[in-house]
Amino acid sequence: xxxxxxxxxxxxxxxxxxxxxxxxxxxxxxxxxxxxxxxxxxxxxxxxxxxxxxxxxxxxxxxxxxxxxxxxxxxxxxxxxxxxxxxxxxxxxxxxxxxxxxxxxxxxxxxxxxxxxxxxxxxxxxxxxxxxxxxxxxxxxxxxxxxxxxxxxxxxxxxxxxxxxxxxxxxxxxxxxxxxxxxxxxxxxxxxxxxxxxxxxxxxxxxxxxxxxxxxxxxxxxxxxxxxxxxxxxxxxxxxxxxxxxxxxxxxxxxxxxxxxxxxxxxxxxxxxxxxxxxxxxxxxxxxxxx
Length: 291
Fold this sequence. Notes:
Radius of gyration: 22 Å
CATH topology of the largest domain: D-amino Acid Aminotransferase, Chain A, domain 1
Structural class: mainly beta
Number of domains: 2
Largest sheet: 5 strands, mixed
């Protein structure tokens, strides 16, 4: 049977809940806006894999330094984060991630290094996935923080109070993990849950594309009396707005600035309430959902 260090697998994933909660049975930690990654490292080698087990090692050469902090085969689970003005910036991280030229990657790794934030350790000379999280955290805490390697901080019991801090700091959200949970590779579990720090605002509906699961709604907002495209969201056939959108007046000209897709244009008269995580560099909504 293949050793975990040599296996191909996906990391344990989280379910989502809508409300923060308190519990002495959980650890609470910040959900950082980055790229989920598994770091397979020995004193001589390092391989960084995405949540879909794609090798992304060459994109982040600064993480080679992690080899210095281990003395055996080790697998860390965590998040690759780009800190900009003291806060995680997903748009800045995307710029790094999409670089392909090796010289540019090396240059950016030196002037704009990313940080790997470790929140779990699932292998240290042997498979640790069957250990409870509380034991794995104890093992992880023995590793010292370095310039490109940090351990994610956590608190106990006071999830509601912690979530208020998350909102104040405008972070992505909060993660709650059962202290006695084992690590379930290739699985999503309610033993780990996330609470997103969502923003809510009304946006103009200006068009749609018919999809198998409903309508892909084109959303916009007015700036200086001009309607700018801000993103899309799925509207299922069971949603109360579904029939209203289909009955909206169709027009011949694209009502938006900032998008040239082929879609059915609508007279921009109807607003809808939308929750979203944040805005991208081009002001588009991330993870938009129609309420």
